[in-house]
Design brief:
With 355 residues, the chain is of the alpha+beta class. The chain folds into two domains: 235 residues, 3-Layer(aba) Sandwich (Aminopeptidase), CATH 3.40.630.10; 116 residues, Alpha-Beta Plaits, CATH 3.30.70.360. The strands form six sheets. A six-stranded mixed β-sheet has the order 1-2-6-3-7-18, with helices on both faces. The protein has a four-stranded antiparallel β-sheet with strand order 12-14-10-15, covered by helices on one side. Strands 4-5-19 form a three-stranded antiparallel β-sheet.
Length: 355
C-alpha cells in the first residue's frame, strides 16, 4: 500500500487511507471530486497462505523472474492485476488527461473475511461524497488465454451450519436413544434429492455441496447426543439468501417432525447473486479486450465470489484480468509479457470510456 500510495501520489492522484479493523485500504482519485464520469478500478493485495514452502521452486515472496515468468504468491491473484491497472491509470492521466476522474480502490481484505476491505472503502466513499460511475475489478478471469473470459456477474454464496440434537444412548439399545446422526443424514439426503434449479439465461444451475459431517464421538458403542454438518450453496438469480434460508429451515422442520430430532441452523450469506446486464459498459470492455488480444471474451458468471459483489451496489461492475490457472497453487506465477498486455487492455478501456 505504501508503494502504491507513493506511486499514485507522485502522478497527481489524491490518496486517502481507508483502513479499518487492522486492514490496509487505499483510495486514490485523479481529477475532480464529483466528476460526471469517474471510472474506477478495484483490486486486492492480500494473498492466501503459501502452503508447503518446501514444495515451491522459488521464494513465494521473491518475485523471481525465470524464463519470462514471475513467481510468487499473489503473482496472478492479484498483485499483477493491481500493478497493471495502476500503471495504466498513471500513464493515461499523464498522457491524455480525461474529462472526468479515475479512481482506484485497493484493499488488503479480499481473501479473508472481506468485512473491512472493499466494504470499508465503499463506506468511506459514501461518507466523503466520492463515487464511481463504472468499475472494473482486476481479478484473474481468463481460464486459458488472456482475453477469453470476462465476468459480468457472480453467483451468490451461502454457508449453513446445521446442528442436530437427539438423545444419547447405548448403540446396543437404539430404541432407548434418538440418533441425531440418522436424522442429519436424512436431512442432507433431502437437500440433495432434487436440483435447486435448471439455470437461467446468464447463470449455470445452482449447486449444493455437503462439506463436512461430524459428531466428535470417540466411542463406537455410544449413540451421540448431537451431530453437525455444513453445506455450501452457490446460487443463481432464481434465489436469494433469504429464500434459501427459508428452504433449509423448511426441510429441517420436516425431518424434525418425522424423527423427533431438533435442528438448529446458522446461516451466513457472503454475497447475493448479481448481474451487470449486457449493454454499453460490457460491450466497451469486450471490444477493448478484443482490440488488444484478437479474442472476444465470453461474458460469464462462473467461479466463486469476488469483491464485485460489493461494488455492484455502488455502480455497474465488470471483472477482467489475467489467466488464473496457477492462482492459489504452489509456484503461482504469471508471464511477465501478459502483465504488459493487460496494462494495454486497461489503457484502452480508459481511452474508450472517456472518448
Amino acid at each position: 500500500m505504501a508503494i502504491l500510495e507513493a506511486l499514485l501520489g507522485a502522478a497527481g492522484f489524491e490518496c486517502h487511507r481507508a483502513d479499518r479493523g487492522g486492514v490496509a485500504n487505499l483510495f486514490a482519485r485523479w481529477g475532480k471530486k464529483g466528476a460526471n464520469r469517474s471510472f474506477g478500478f478495484n483490486g486486492h493485495v492480500d494473498v492466501v497462505p503459501v502452503g508447503d514452502l518446501a514444495a515451491w521452486t522459488q521464494d513465494p515472496f521473491g518475485a523471481a523472474v525465470v524464463d519470462g515468468w514471475m513467481f510468487g504468491r499473489g503473482a496472478t491473484d492479484m498483485k499483477s492485476g493491481v500493478a497493471a491497472f495502476a500503471a495504466a491509470a498513471v500513464d493515461f492521466v499523464q498522457d491524455t488527461p480525461p474529462d472526468g476522474a479515475v479512481i482506484l480502490t485497493i484493499t488488503g481484505d479480499e481473501e479473508g473475511p472481506s468485512v473491512d476491505g472493499t466494504v470499508a472503502l465503499l463506506d468511506w466513499m459514501a461518507r466523503n461524497g466520492e463515487r464511481m460511475t463504472a468499475c472494473l475489478v482486476g481479478e484473474p478471469t481468463c481460464p486459458k488465454t488472456l482475453g477469453d473470459m470476462m465476468k459480468i456477474g457472480r453467483r451468490g454464496s451461502l454457508t449453513a451450519w446445521i446442528t442436530a440434537y437427539g438423545v444419547q444412548g447405548h448403540s446396543a439399545y437404539p430404541h432407548r436413544a434418538r440418533n441425531p446422526m440418522s436424522a442429519l443424514v436424512r436431512l442432507l439426503a433431502a437437500l440433495e434429492a432434487e436440483p435447486l434449479d435448471q439455470g437461467t439465461a446468464h447463470f449455470d444451475a445452482s449447486t449444493l455441496a455437503i462439506t463436512t459431517i461430524d459428531c466428535g464421538n470417540p466411542a463406537t458403542n455410544v449413540i451421540p447426543a448431537k451431530g453437525n454438518a455444513t453445506v455450501n450453496i452457490r446460487f443463481n438469480d432464481c434465489h436469494s439468501g433469504a429464500s434459501l434460508t427459508a428452504w433449509l429451515q423448511e426441510k429441517a422442520d420436516a425431518v424434525a417432525l418425522e424423527t423427533g430430532v431438533r435442528f438448529d441452523l446458522r446461516v451466513s450469506v457472503s454475497g447475493e447473486s448479481f448481474l451487470t446486464p449486457p449493454g454499453v459498459f460490457t460491450d466497451l470492455v469486450a471490444k477493448a479486450v478484443q482490440a488488444e488480444t484478437g479474442v472476444m471474451p465470453e461474458a460469464s458468471t462462473s467461479g466463486g465470489t469476488s469483491d464485485a459483489r460489493f461494488v455492484k451496489d455502488h455502480c455497474p461492475v465488470v471483472e477482467f484480468g489475467l489467466v488464473g490457472q496457477t492462482m492459489h497453487q504452489v509456484d503461482e506465477r504469471v508471464e511477465v509479457a501478459q502483465i504488459v498486455r493487460l496494462k494495454a487492455i486497461y489503457t484502452r478501456i480508459l481511452q474508450d470510456y472517456f472518448a
